[in-house]
């Protein structure tokens, strides 16, 4: 698990370095912010369309082999991009194609690597392993964004892509030496006769998700939080530079506090032993209320005080939700469930920022934060009350029902 964490840190740092450089590269080639956004959407679009098939592949194929091959393929794409940049052969069309290919491979790589990490620890330690993964992700994100500017400044854009390619190869070279821990959940590939075809495997994953109230509730909580909150890089940027009259430096400070809160939350999330949808909902509702208070902040200092607990609560909630998602289904269904989740999450990722942007147009930055937080807390509270009411209604036995009818 230590080796896997080190490998993931290196990979996350390389990925965020490439993402940062890619946005700058598109701006340099096109001079268009819209083209930059399009490149991000093109890379995310495959998750919307084929994540369910990627999850089915993870359930069918050996997990370590699948993760190693997908990492090697991602490294190959990064090296090809680096070569094209170095030879000055990269244009917008080829960059979009490479971004789309990366997105396709990621539909398999994401669930494969997530579930592989769970195989390395005993069953009872999976929530902690997920928390460690969240901590590694946050640390890699900070490191990668910082290294992007240094690498481009001293070695050029191609070097950043090449470094990311090396990070993928490093992960691929570590995977063959990983061994499952004693007491780990055993992965069962292609478990049933009915799952011998890809279409049937996908259908089974969709049906399992739809029949599982816990997963549907988790999807609802995460969805409302993703659309009306969490996009703090958008809402807080407008709040800081607008009503609070701050500049880029002030927003940089806010972003740093958000990142620190994410790391603290990941550490706390790793201590959860029995995460549940109820815990996720309570944390998400608390985050919504904190967002309301942050929207009313009269100064940057007050906002910074509110941003830290907001980020901590969001990170713990994410860790708890991921633990539920990866432990609730049986072992042979987890890849497909993660595939379904990938498609749902992409809908939120693509639809959330435009919806939030429209809300800010109508209500301003403060109004969007306040209204969004109230919607999150109100929706989750209403769902909880409805659930409690349904649980309180006594169910009559068939015999009692016949006697009552008589």
Account of the 3D structure:
The chain contains 14 helices and no strands. With 406 residues, the protein is mainly α. The N and C termini lie far apart (64 Å).
Q: What is the N-to-C order of secondary-structure elements (H for helix, E for strand)?
A: HHHHHHHHHHHHHH
Note the beta-strand portion. under 5%
**What class do helices, strands and sheet pairing give?**
mainly alpha
Shape estimate: globular
Q: Segments where pLDDT lies below 50 for 5+ residues? A: 190-200, 398-406
What Rg do the Cα atoms give?
A: 22 Å
- How many strands, which pairing sense, and closed or not: the largest β-sheet? none
**pLDDT averaged over residues:** 85
Distance between the termini: 64 Å
Portion of residues in helices?
over 70%
Q: How many β-strand runs?
A: 0
Number of helices: 14
Provide tags for this entry.
406 residues, mainly alpha, globular
Layout of strands and helices, then pairs:
Elements: H1 2-30, H2 33-60, H3 63-86, H4 92-119, H5 126-155, H6 157-174, H7 198-211, H8 213-228, H9 232-241, H10 248-269, H11 277-295, H12 300-327, H13 334-392, H14 398-405
Short description:
This protein has 406 residues and is mainly α. 82% of the residues lie in helices and 0% in strands.
């Amino acid at each position: 698990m230590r080796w896997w964490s080190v490998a993931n840190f290196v990979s996350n740092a390389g990925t965020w370095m490439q993402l940062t450089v890619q946005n700058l590269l598109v701006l340099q080639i096109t001079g268009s912010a819209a083209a930059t956004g399009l490149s991000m959407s093109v890379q995310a679009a495959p998750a919307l369309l084929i994540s369910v098939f990627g999850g089915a592949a993870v359930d069918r194929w050996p997990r370590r082999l699948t993760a190693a091959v997908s990492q090697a393929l991602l490294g190959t794409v990064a090296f090809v991009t680096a070569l094209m940049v170095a030879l000055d052969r990269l244009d917008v069309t080829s960059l979009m194609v490479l971004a789309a290919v990366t997105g396709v491979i990621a539909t398999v790589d994401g669930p494969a690597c997530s579930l592989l990490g769970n195989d390395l620890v005993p069953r009872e330690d999976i929530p902690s392993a997920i928390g460690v993964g969240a901590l590694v992700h946050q640390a890699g994100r900070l490191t990668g964004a910082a290294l992007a500017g240094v690498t481009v400044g001293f070695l050029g854009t191609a070097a950043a892509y090449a470094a990311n390619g090396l990070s993928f190869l490093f992960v691929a070279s570590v995977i063959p030496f990983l061994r499952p821990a004693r007491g780990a959940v055993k992965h069962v590939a292609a478990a049933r006769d009915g799952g011998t075809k890809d279409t049937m495997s996908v259908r089974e994953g969709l049906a399992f998700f739809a029949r599982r109230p816990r997963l549907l509730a988790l999807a609802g909580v995460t969805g409302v939080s993703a659309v009306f909150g969490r996009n703090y890089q958008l809402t807080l940027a407008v709040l800081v530079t607008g009503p609070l009259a701050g500049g880029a430096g002030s927003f940089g400070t806010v972003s740093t506090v958000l990142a620190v809160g994410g790391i603290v939350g990941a550490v706390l999330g790793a201590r959860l032993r029995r995460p549940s949808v109820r815990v996720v909902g309570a944390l998400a509702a608390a985050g919504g209320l904190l967002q309301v208070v942050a929207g009313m902040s009269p100064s940057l200092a007050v906002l910074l005080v509110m941003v830290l607990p907001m980020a901590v609560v969001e990170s713990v909630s994410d860790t708890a939700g991921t633990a539920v998602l990866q432990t609730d289904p049986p072992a042979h269904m987890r890849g497909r469930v993660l595939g379904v989740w990938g498609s749902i999450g992409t809908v939120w990722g693509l639809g959330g920022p435009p919806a939030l942007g429209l809300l800010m147009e109508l209500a301003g930055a403060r109004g969007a934060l306040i209204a969004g937080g109230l919607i999150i807390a109100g929706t989750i509270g209403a769902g909880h009350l409805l659930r409690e009411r349904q649980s309180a209604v006594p169910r009559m036995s068939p015999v009692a029902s016949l006697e009552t009818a008589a």
